[in-house]
Design brief:
- The complex is a heterodimer of chains A (about 110) and B (about 110).
- Chain A is an all-beta fold and about 110 residues long.
- Helices cover about 0% and strands about 55% of the residues of chain A.
- Chain A contains no helices and 11 strands.
- In chain A, strands 2, 4, 5, 9, 10 and 11 form a 6-stranded mixed beta sheet that branches. In chain A, strands 1-3-8-7-6 form a 5-stranded antiparallel beta sheet, with no helix packed on it.
- In chain A, a hairpin with a 6-residue loop joins strand 4 and strand 5.
- Chain B has about 110 residues and is an all-beta fold.
- Chain B has no helices and 11 strands.
- In chain B, the strands form 2 sheets. In chain B, strands 2, 4, 5, 6, 9, 10 and 11 form a 7-stranded mixed beta sheet that branches. A 4-stranded antiparallel beta sheet of chain B has the order 1-3-8-7, with no helix packed on it.
- The radius of gyration of chain B is 13 Å and the shape is globular.
- Chains A and B meet through strand 4, strand 5 and strand 10 of A and strand 4, strand 5, strand 9 and strand 10 of B.
């Protein structure tokens, strides 16, 4: 079993839809949870990070962490074609130690 | 504040050649990380530094790979005797301990070994 599992998709949704992206993990010691967005042939761009359990909202994006279930989610409201990218979940013991990434979920938002 | 920069952006080399990549972190970030990403996969950790000290190396990092951060600012990653399996995107990230809680990535160096 990999430390972090993420469905690679692809996921295709119409513009304006609510998108739900998820990861599961096995290491209960992980405390920091991040979501990165990566456009084709570019470096990952930080979207959100969360410490321990709970929710965090930033504009159209909401990150949720459920440590009891070892499950994290990213919700995108009112999705736009510009949201079309690969979304990577990442986690670690802290934000300043090596991160473990999921495979990434490829999202297409169709106008 | 400029972001993380990496050079070159692309490198094509023949099998057996040595290559060196450079990463310039965000100014005053004391931690610098190298990751490797292959097609359809997430980035995988290779090694990281706090200032000039190399804190950890992944088991992925074979003896042909070496990384340095001599003055605690920029870092270089060298691959000796490249193999086709080394073809990947090499990503650099940086963070500042106790100031930022996460890592900021550069654009990556895409290596193709023929």
């Amino acid at each position: 079993q990999k430390e972090v599992e993420q469905d690679p998709g692809p996921l295709s949704v119409p513009e304006g839809a609510i998108v739900s992206l998820n990861c599961t993990y096995s290491n209960s010691a992980f405390q920091y949870f991040m979501w990165y967005r990566q456009y084709s042939r570019k470096g990952p761009e930080l979207l959100m990070y969360t410490y321990s359990s709970g929710n965090k909202e930033d504009g159209r994006f909401t990150a949720q962490v459920d440590k009891s279930s070892k499950y994290i989610s990213l919700f995108i409201r009112d999705s736009q074609p510009s949201d079309s990218a690969t979304y990577l979940c990442a986690m670690g013991y802290s934000g300043n130690t090596p991160l473990v990434f999921g495979k990434g979920t490829r999202l297409s938002v169709i106008a | 504040d400029t972001g993380v920069s990496q050079n070159p952006r692309h490198k094509i080399t023949k099998r057996g050649q040595n290559v060196t990549f450079r990463c310039d972190p965000i100014s005053e970030h004391n931690r610098l990380y190298w990751y490797r990403q292959t097609l359809g996969q997430g980035p995988e950790f290779l090694t990281y530094f706090q200032n000039e000290a190399q804190l950890e190396k992944s088991r992925l990092l074979s003896d042909r790979f070496s990384a340095e951060r001599p003055k605690g600012s920029f870092s270089t990653l060298e691959i000796q005797r490249t193999e086709q399996g080394d073809s990947a995107m090499y990503l650099c990230a940086s963070s500042q301990e106790r100031i930022t809680d996460t890592q900021y990535f550069g654009p990556g160096t895409r290596l193709t070994v023929l």
